[in-house]
Design a protein that fits this description.
- This protein is of the alpha/beta class.
- It has one domain: Aldolase class I (TIM Barrel, Alpha-Beta Barrel).
- It contains ten helices and eight strands.
- Strands 3-2-1-8-7-6-5-4 form an eight-stranded parallel β-sheet.
- Helix 2 packs parallel to helix 3 and helix 4 packs antiparallel against helix 5.
- The protein is globular.
Length: about 270
């Protein structure tokens, strides 16, 4: 009798496919990868999910791009991602626009109708008073969305205030936020990183001492060097975001210790047999 695909044992031994021994299958709580979609076409989007869908947990349609798509294309992309077990959300800038234009109810109605299952509550460009931030989180939760809040400003040169991050994160979680995203922009040039994209190592060390459970946060890190630094600091279960679609497989390899930059994440095996 011919074996079915589901009954065939994968050819790669688990110690080769995940020598770190710490990667969970989807749906996972930690070690999340959030991809930023700046306008992928349908074929590229389908290819991403077919090739790397097992390694993608969240897709964010960048900035305010969601209303710019042809309606049928946007719906197809959202539905395709949801079928692949991927949460989908519009960029936080679109909700900031809704706040500024006094169109918040319209924003939530459209997001629900289109099939988004998550939203990002941010104040990277506008000033969002604490009571309104809490109200937006509560409103989104009440509508059934997963809620990702974001901390940090998009203005060039903006740095991370660790004490304020911890205060805001605690209030956000009390209001119902699932995770707090730490702003770095799609360019990786603010917050934890300087204007050239280099890691502010002193800030990272302060964060390591202060944040406790790093898995409560999702760190925007679009560049390979930034991802490497955070993986070495926190391990394979660190949540990373603003990952370009073409870098998903490379990031997953780094998470598992399958790239020289993070080879040290592999579990040591005292003896091996060929």
């Amino acid at each position: 009798m011919e074996a079915t695909a589901s009954s065939v044992r994968p050819p790669w031994h688990p110690q080769l496919s995940d020598p770190s021994g710490r990667r969970d299958a989807k749906p996972r709580r930690y070690g999340l990868t959030m991809v930023i979609d700046k306008g992928l076409g349908m074929h590229a989007f389908e290819d991403l999910l077919a090739t790397a869908g097992d390694h993608v947990d969240i897709i964010k349609f960048a900035f305010g791009t969601s209303p710019l798509y042809p309606d049928d294309v946007l719906r197809r992309k959202i539905a395709m991602a949801r079928r692949s077990g991927v949460s989908v959300m519009p960029g936080g800038t679109l909700l900031e626009t809704a706040v500024r234009q006094d169109m918040v109810p319209s924003f939530f109605r459209a997001a629900l109708e289109l099939g988004f299952d998550a939203v990002e509550v941010s104040d990277g460009t506008i000033e969002l008073p604490r009571p309104l931030r809490t109200e937006l989180i509560s409103m989104a939760r009440g509508l059934g969305f997963r809620v990702f809040t974001e901390f940090g400003k998009k203005k060039a040169g903006s740095r991370l205030d660790v004490d304020e991050l911890l205060r805001v994160a605690e209030r956000d979680r009390e209001a119902g936020a699932d995770l707090v995203i730490v702003e770095a922009r799609d360019s990786g040039t603010v917050g934890l990183f300087d204007e050239g994209g280099a890691l502010r190592e002193g800030d990272l060390e302060k964060i390591r001492r202060a944040v406790g459970d790093h898995r409560r946060f999702l760190w925007e890190a679009p560049r390979k060097e930034q991802q490497t630094a955070l993986l070495l600091a926190f391990g394979p279960q660190v949540n990373l975001g603003n990952v370009p679609a073409q870098d998903v497989m490379a990031l997953e390899a780094m998470r598992r210790g399958l790239r020289s930059d993070t080879f040290g994440l592999q579990r040591c095996v005292p003896e091996y047999v060929i």
